[in-house]
Design goal:
Chain lengths: 335, 335
Amino acid sequence: MGKVRQADIARVAGVSQATVSVVLGGNRTGVRLSERTRLRVLEAAERLGYVPDPVSSRLASTRNNLLGVYTFTPAFPDIADVYYPILAGVEAEAAALGKDLIMFTASSAAPDRIRRTRLADGCLFLGRHVPVDAIADLLAAGFPIVHIGRRTELGGRIPHVGADYVSASAEVITRLARAGHSRVRYLREPDDAPSSGDRERGVRAAAADAGMSLAVTRTDGSDLDPASVRGWLDDGVTALVVEETDTGAVFHATRRALGGAGVSVPGDVSLAVLGRPPGGTAGPVISGFEVPRRALGRAAVRLLASLVEPGSGEPPPHRLLTCPPVAGETIATVA
Amino acid sequence: MGKVRQADIARVAGVSQATVSVVLGGNRTGVRLSERTRLRVLEAAERLGYVPDPVSSRLASTRNNLLGVYTFTPAFPDIADVYYPILAGVEAEAAALGKDLIMFTASSAAPDRIRRTRLADGCLFLGRHVPVDAIADLLAAGFPIVHIGRRTELGGRIPHVGADYVSASAEVITRLARAGHSRVRYLREPDDAPSSGDRERGVRAAAADAGMSLAVTRTDGSDLDPASVRGWLDDGVTALVVEETDTGAVFHATRRALGGAGVSVPGDVSLAVLGRPPGGTAGPVISGFEVPRRALGRAAVRLLASLVEPGSGEPPPHRLLTCPPVAGETIATVA
DNA sequence: TCAATGGAGTAATACGTATTAGTACGGTGG
DNA sequence: CCACCGTACTAATACGTATTACTCCATTGA
């Protein structure tokens, strides 16, 4: 009861291996075949319990029904909330399309593990930062890839599906402006990921539009303390806008600092977050916006699938999804 | 800048493809080679940017550092808490061992998708119920598999890594007995998964040991209401023991019924759960035990890896991990 | 009767790597 | 001068499927 190959079917059905391949492959090339043989082959395959060897098919043709998922950080980190919904979306859509998933993990060990992605028909990439060189190699080789999250590197040639942080962030600022806030402190991550840059762009544009006075702090959160908070308030700031990303570091530090300073939200100061803080926290719902992570996952899979399929023309290589606003309870109206 | 094959390296280095394969493969078969050629080949490979084709290597050798993960329910369900930690453990251990993961999803579509698992070197299975026939086929073919969760089917021949629900459940009952409870209602899932059976075995044994009066309800939760709760209390029951599984249905329904009846826990009745309810719920910590899900994932990968590697003798095909007790705050002492 | 046509299937080969049996060659010892 | 040996490689082949060019045979038409 070992492996059953096409050759075995061929022997049983009294035809050649080639014929078996043609029949089982659905005769996509239009070989002339009598219905009788077709049925004989199918019946033999059924009886022997034939299972195509995916490796061989892949070697011979170049289609696998396997989509890769490559995460630069471990895919299942402790900060579950960020990646989990994305992966859930990826899995759901892949299952719907009948594709399986290969998860590649960037082990610190071998940096060339990224090359293994070529085992799949195409690959999704996921992470705040991206190894540009390796990606460039894959692109140059014509390997289908899609990054989850907007990517500006390589002159924007990296196909991606992202969230429209620019508009969403602008909308948050506009909301604050409408609530009467005119002095705002904006806390952002220190590194230059596209998602952070996008948020900043939206924030600055909307602030300028609203004639709002905006001060920016770049921080990883470690230098935030109650004194910082008091300093801002003394400065006349009536609202804080905080970036929320994968790590959640800045937002977390801000909350701690606010708590430490004994400042009430939104009584003493309004608080908005550019994103959605991890759930499970007690207290009021923070105003901000939702990142449609599950939808991102689904859209990315669809895009990748269309890149893998040759037909149907060139699909647009980029896609931005809208982030629905979260009203929340932490924006107060000021005179 | 297309693909670089061993043949290309061979041409440049002035040797044969076979030599290239030997050199790049680390010469595991002990072919005599001069150091000079070795270096020439390595240098050429480096210069041309050679990337081994994993598909071809797999076809030729039959080992590809891929471990499958097959989930009978979608791996990323809405009830995140159950599967997520397991997968996190699986991923962490796989990364540590330098293996990649293929996620196979049981799409409702083709039941023979399970056969695709053979693309991997071995496969992990995960789910409350298991398609025994397909598993039997794989086993018979000598394909390495490990089930996460104890499995008694096929005469116990399915290698697995599970949690010791028997002992953990018994310990919970013993705890109740020590707190003076002698009339207990036990609510369990209606279906016959091994994990439910194990819990029941532990519960019954410990209850008998303690001379406790035990009443069992099999339910999917839909028929639980405040009236049920009042009925039990009128009956003299002082503690409820509820099973917590993948679905969480029974435990959830119980909580709702308790709330609806206006019964206070543990004031009016003590509550213990055989497992750990999903986090994020407010209120007191429920007494019960922890399921070491992450550890299960890691242990399963280790076991599978050892089944895939031929050497080092036959490893024990089963392994049960201990569930650490959770003291909680919902067991009161009674006279 | 011969060429043309069409139907039914197959031989040959490619895909890229791993492995094993074997070859070629320059020395050594007798 | 021959048998023998060790060194340094390579030729050949396997892995299982997909594809394409080709063969073989029976009709048909002129």
